[in-house]
Amino acid sequence: MPGRTGRGVGDEPGQGTGGGTNLGGCGAGATPARRRPVPAGQAACLPSFTRLPYSAADFDCVERKAGDIMSVWARGAGAVAVAAALVLGAGPGAAVAADPVRSPYGASTGVGVHNAYEKAKYRYFADALDSGAAMLELDVWTNTFGRSWRVSHGNPLGNDNNCENAAHAGELRTRPRNQDLGGCLADIRAWHDAHPGHRPVLLKIEMKDGFQARHGRGPADLDALLTARLGDALFRPADLAGAHPDLDTAVRADGWPTRDRLAGKFVVELIPGTVEEGNPADSLWTDREYAAHLRGLAAAGRLREAGAFPAVHRAQGGDPRLRYADAGLRPWFVVFDGDASVYAGGSVDTSWYARHDYLLVMTDAHNVAPAIDGTHPTEAQARDRLALLAGRHASVVSADWYPLPSVLSTVVPRAGG
Q1: What pTM value is reported for the model?
Q2: What total of structural domains would you count in the chain?
């Protein structure tokens, strides 16, 4: 995770299914006429679904009652998330409760995988895509000591990753790994073509050492690469902006599209990288550089060319966009990304993000007190942590929980503002 100058294992659930699902008495959402008796020992857990945050016991209760709907849901949302979303009848998350598939993207909380390109986590990037995760992260290097857009964690000069540069789905898991960003995007497109109705995926790119515009690795070059490799699989800033003058105006007025409208799409998030942020000679970080790029494209009537959303990086109270002295950049930020421990610690009013329909990515979710294992927590611990942070208004909770696909594919309601 958190740097410069100058293609349906995880398909979105429930598409084309009818309403009227009966969970047999779990939660307040079931109508009295359709409730079935609650087995002994389960009744006590039901009332807790009228409040946030939800506990692992809450999810377990609903999961036991959800057997009659699982056949119509794809793996992408997971049994627990589906049941939880359907039973919530009022209060925060009610939009998700009415129909999880048709709920706004910004009203749900999913789970992401930190550095999903690492071979120790997934043999191939296609496996990461198959995991059902709501977010997958790539680290990208651009310095002139190496070629192209390199994808690796600690090697700034070469590629060290699970990407193959597959030309089509038949080549996935068959080719040499350690490809550049173009190769990773090729794998994503090949997987997408084989799973055209897949869940929306946030593709988070940490620009380790920032952009290098003078050497063919600037914002416009990234847009061109994203367009060439992902094409119509991208959900672009222009798609969110519509007829509005900027992203902030658009999201405040209309919010994010529903999850079914985002089926088959990738949303690309950009954050500044650790090297970039630690470089005293670098005064133009990824966030500001790409936001200025968006503003310029919009002014020229060319916003459609942009392929990514810059994120305000690191948790901060109030409106963290005020850090940008150039006030004209602020309306181009509707994605925020930072440490979960800070967001959940009480010093930041996270309801502000939910009230304005901003996406909030919380990283290192395992470190929130009480800390749990960053890679191998129990399933109950991971679900409890997801529930806690959904109640703190997270859009995505990120950790290294790749051994828990049933958790990665879980989508729950995000607490309202």
Answers
A1: 0.79
A2: 1
